[in-house]
Model the fold of this input.
Amino acid sequence: MRAEYFGRASYGTIMGFSSLVVMLGMFIGPVFAGLMYDSSGNYETGFTLLALIAGAGSLLMLLAQKPGSGNAAPPLRATASPPAMAGGGGDGA
Done:
């Protein structure tokens, strides 16, 4: 899905950011569930909230639109590279 939406050229960058989000969830989830257990005496509240957050993320994935279809912003234009310096690379000659 990521490669279809953003192309193969951006796949590595998008996978890197996606992995960061997953790792944060893997770190914060157990800590949050533990804190909820300490405050309420059971895991039900913590797991329910984590399930709701995961469900909201799934819903957002289902609603995602491919860039360029519908309301997506237009792609950025590539700027031309500056012209080469005359005189062979700036050696002072």
